[in-house]
Amino acid sequence: MFLLGELAGRIGAEVQGDPGLRIEGLATLGDAGPAQLSFLTNPRYRKAAEASDAGALLVGQGSGLSGRNLLIAAEPYLALAELLELFHPAVTAPPGVSPDARLADDVETGRDIHVGPFAVIGERTKLGDGVIVGAGSVVGRDCELGEKTELKPRAVLYPGTRVGRRCLIHSGVVLGGDGYGFATTKGEHRKVPQVGRVVLEDDVEIGANTTVDRAMLGETRIGRGSKIDNLVMIAHGVRLGPAALLAGQAGIAGSARVGARATLAGQSGVAGHLDLGDDIIVAAKAAVFADLPDGAFVSGIPAMDHRRWKRAQAVTARLPELRKEVRKLRAKLTELEQRLGAED
Amino acid sequence: MFLLGELAGRIGAEVQGDPGLRIEGLATLGDAGPAQLSFLTNPRYRKAAEASDAGALLVGQGSGLSGRNLLIAAEPYLALAELLELFHPAVTAPPGVSPDARLADDVETGRDIHVGPFAVIGERTKLGDGVIVGAGSVVGRDCELGEKTELKPRAVLYPGTRVGRRCLIHSGVVLGGDGYGFATTKGEHRKVPQVGRVVLEDDVEIGANTTVDRAMLGETRIGRGSKIDNLVMIAHGVRLGPAALLAGQAGIAGSARVGARATLAGQSGVAGHLDLGDDIIVAAKAAVFADLPDGAFVSGIPAMDHRRWKRAQAVTARLPELRKEVRKLRAKLTELEQRLGAED
Amino acid sequence: MFLLGELAGRIGAEVQGDPGLRIEGLATLGDAGPAQLSFLTNPRYRKAAEASDAGALLVGQGSGLSGRNLLIAAEPYLALAELLELFHPAVTAPPGVSPDARLADDVETGRDIHVGPFAVIGERTKLGDGVIVGAGSVVGRDCELGEKTELKPRAVLYPGTRVGRRCLIHSGVVLGGDGYGFATTKGEHRKVPQVGRVVLEDDVEIGANTTVDRAMLGETRIGRGSKIDNLVMIAHGVRLGPAALLAGQAGIAGSARVGARATLAGQSGVAGHLDLGDDIIVAAKAAVFADLPDGAFVSGIPAMDHRRWKRAQAVTARLPELRKEVRKLRAKLTELEQRLGAED
């Protein structure tokens, strides 16, 4: 339990209303009651905010809400992250290696590591201080996991994978699987050995069942602070980030370079061997088939400037009418020509 | 072995031909022989049905097939389900907890549960009567699995996940992974704790390697009787169903609401925070970027009314010709204007 | 260490430059130093090749590079595969069954098999000579794995799955999960039992977290020498290949037939029940909604002939201009008509 005024102090927000209001927890606009704080960080939910029974609302500046207890923050979504941490402190696995885990004799382990039951860790692998390896995870030989990195249950790291510090790898993730490389000769596909590795820099998060393939030679590298959602596919030799955001089911084909702070929305794709600049945005479902300069915002298949795409799509939906108009013009013109005795 | 007439009685169908025909099993049109029953439930396979060596065919009313032994059912695909159950009774794992499974001391278990080897079940989790937890599955603490729910091998449930009765969760499924939420400030992405849960109501099926993320706060909820295919992504805070159908590789972004009996075809997507009505259909590959009323049937990127999309696509394929036509008209018009001495 | 001339002899290539050059390894153009061989197999990297510090370069005929040590091969990508094998001989798991694996009593095993810890193998399953079952994999009852087939850690084979010889199944793959089949009656979806199987012919590779569903009846069959990338979805009853190539996140819906040497690029899809010929190419992101003849090369949603699609897309991006042109023509024509006193 916190008083509203206390919360304001903790997160550097301003109270409008009763700073002595007792807040027992956080809840969604629909679920919150008088002892709970809810939030309005997306204008789409304004009506739901007005109708909410929440005792108080976290909002941004200029929300225009009145007659309510408000916690007004400069960056309300960031403030929400802080409040969630306050009310829901992370529960971490206690240090200890399960007797049901199997570590090779020469695994190097730091202090306070946790290894769950049925985890398997290969030869010469190094686990930094505070590393957590969830139940059933398999970490191949010659891997490195930086301090405080956590593998949730049933992640797989192929041999040689390197993961930085404070990374979070969700269940079902596969890092370091073979890149997709085959030399086709006489209708048969011969495997091209994939002898590179995957490197994740510090503070990377990888969502459930996402796959990142090892490079054929050298590295597939995910830059510092990049956050990747579920079921994303990163092919061999890709270089991404730092601080990239990849939403669910996005994909990047082999050897593409994607710059800093890139955003790939859901189900988007980037073709192989491309160079994409910093701060680019690829809209949901878009497919990038050509290099992009810094700051590009693209949509469509093939991807083009987002505003151009929007205008083009507006016409696309009305193409039958456009064609009808053209046919009408043609008929009128023909009629006119005939009236004038024009030779066609 | 059943006589054709017996089968008709069991499924409420009508025999045309020999009710005394001995049917030893079911097979596809191409594989079936004289002792087997095959089926024609999709008109696309009519020629294959006519050429089939099957002893008898399950068909709908008015199939127009003649000179064959037929089992005529009002709902032939439903009848096929019943016949498959009859000829292939489900083989279920016998009750028992493997000595190689690891259950926390305070797991509450109903009667006749089965837990396979190398499964791990966390503190305070409750398993209803007849629950099956396949080999290598990991069920976190504070989960609940309703009676007769089955986890196939290597499913993962994060802590706090609730699964109803008679659900079927296939291998590689991850329920309750962290939602994808980050507050970006000064070019860095700070994790927004995801402290909600995933709730599956009764009779839900989830296909292999599909992921359903936990809500940031509150629930991600999959309604009763919904059936989800493989490699589908359901983001945090989604509410879906009841009785929704999601085909392979579909995705629903965060906080979207999708109504009852919705159909999302393969590789389709729904953007975040949308409200989609009941009985909607989203065609394969479509991307829904706006709310949809009940009964909408949409296609395209962005999704639009399906018939409009079809007409627009027909023109799209012929756009080069349309442009040529417009250029021709322009040329003629210019010529006409010149002939008439028109000032432009 | 090899001399450049030796390497040429091994792979049937020609040396331009110093055959006595000592090559210690292979590296990418950016990473290679004077003791390393790099390669130029994609013209996109020509400048990087010119700038590379590599001691020698593997190239195709007519590369036009000069003043460098070159290894000139007729099929340079194939030569690269051979060189990678030479410098990086495969490390395979030593024969032996982990005491932490659980095999049913009646599993039939060939010579020199390897089974990792926490693997589970069901009744009556047969493992050919040299089979490798990685840690944590689950192989159901009545499966067959041909000689030298390898399952990487944490693959799952449902009961009855048959895998040919020399197949490579990556981590997280699920073979034989239930096909997605439901008979809908009165708004409820009744499961149609899926009692068929998955068959992989010889020399098939399946990428991480890909799923191949069992047929409702009969087989889902992946033809000999087919290579499938990560996160691909193959639905029930599909027949594919031989020698098909499916890139990441592609999907094939139920009962589709896809011919020999088909290429499905990334994130492409094929609708159910279609017949696609041999040697077809489906471009990235395309969706095939109709049968395709041998040799078709298609793009777009819905997929059409690739060249037609390219021309149509070029116009799509300029649709707003086209519409403006049409409006201008209409205005001019109207003006002309008025000048001529034409009744509209």
What fraction of the residues of chain A are assigned to beta strands by DSSP? 25-35%
Mean pLDDT of chain A: 96
The end-to-end span of chain A amounts to 86 Å
The chain pair forming the largest interface, with residue counts per chain, is:
A-C, 67 and 70 residues
The best one-word shape of chain A is flat
By oligomeric state, this entry counts as homotrimer
How is the main sheet of chain A built?
12 strands, mixed
Number of strands of chain A: 40
Spatial order of strands in the largest sheet of chain A: 8-11-14-17-20-25-28-31-34-37-39-40
Backbone CA Rg of chain A: 27 Å
- The number of distinct helices of chain A, counting runs of at least 4 residues, comes to 5
Q: Are there runs of chain A of 5+ residues with pLDDT below 50, and where?
A: none
Give me the CATH superfamily of the largest domain in chain A.
Answer: Hexapeptide repeat proteins
Q: What is the domain tally of chain A?
A: 2
CATH class type of the largest domain in chain A: Mainly Beta
- Classification by helices and strands of chain A: alpha/beta
Q: Could you name the CATH topology of the largest domain in chain A?
A: UDP N-Acetylglucosamine Acyltransferase, domain 1
